[in-house]
Amino acid sequence: MQxxxxxxxxxxxxxxxAQVQETKTGLxxxxxxxIEQYNLKKRVAISGYDPVAYFTEKKALxxxxxxxxxxxxxxxxxxxxxxxxxxxxxxxxxxPQYGGYCAYAIGLKDEKVKINxxxxxxxxxxxxxxxxxWGTNTLDLWTKEGAEKLQKQADINWxxxxx
Length: 163
What we know:
Layout: H1 2-25, H2 29-37, E1 40-41, E2 44-45, H3 53-56, E3 64-71, E4 74-78, H4 81-89, H5 91-94, H6 103-109, E5 116-123, E6 126-130, E7 132-133, E8 136-137, H7 138-144, H8 147-162
Antiparallel strand pairs: 1-2, 3-4, 5-6, 7-8
Helix pairs in contact: 6-8
């Protein structure tokens, strides 16, 4: 009986400690796991670029710290208050695919590779980002090697990572 009481005490203590940790950080375990999956620079997504501008302006625009918000533990910065408000209405619509990592690398080799936020594609209403440096533009490779096939494989690879 004493062992059972001790086990219950330990279990309740662990729950309490987890709740205190969540309160201190402001993050749930789900948010913490999500942050681990994202390509972040000091908890900021897309190197501080505005995720909404890719859709509305059809170009990469650097966000401003004053127009930032946190969604599920990830900080997003926006070019304007209007873009921030659009994001807040439907954040899933604007979030980059594959945690903001290079879509080509996730599709081809299931590797997390940093991106150049100015190299992107909007496909089927979703934002895909790509590595582009040292003479290698993976957006060109993505297109050349079959974006549809790579996208399907990237979806499979990413799903395995986040589950």
